[in-house]
Write a structure and sequence with these properties.
By secondary structure, this protein is mainly beta. It is about 0% helix and about 55% strand. It has no helices and eleven strands.
Amino acid sequence: QVQLVESGGGLVQAGGSLRLSCAASGRTFSSYAMSWFRQAPGKEREFVAVISRSGGSTYTYYADSVKGRFTISRDSAKNTVYLQMNSLKPEDTAVYYCKATANGNSYWGQGTQVTVSS
């Protein structure tokens, strides 16, 4: 089982940047594909970005709404996945969640609030 703890959220002005972190417990972090989702008030949770598990070629994939502005990365030595968010917009305001997926199992963190003021 994997436990995930997000951090790094906060209040930022439009055009600003934030870096979210998701720290994972467990020795098998490298075997999980890691992703970020977000949920705005009154809306469904939506996919933001994903990065493949460690080992072999690394691939990333982004939602169209964040492509070119957000970057997902992982540090296996620290059991942490990051989401660098640049050129933030008010519509990026949401609770951001990280998710670990492997072998049909998925685990979610508790979320971190990101608020972008106009």
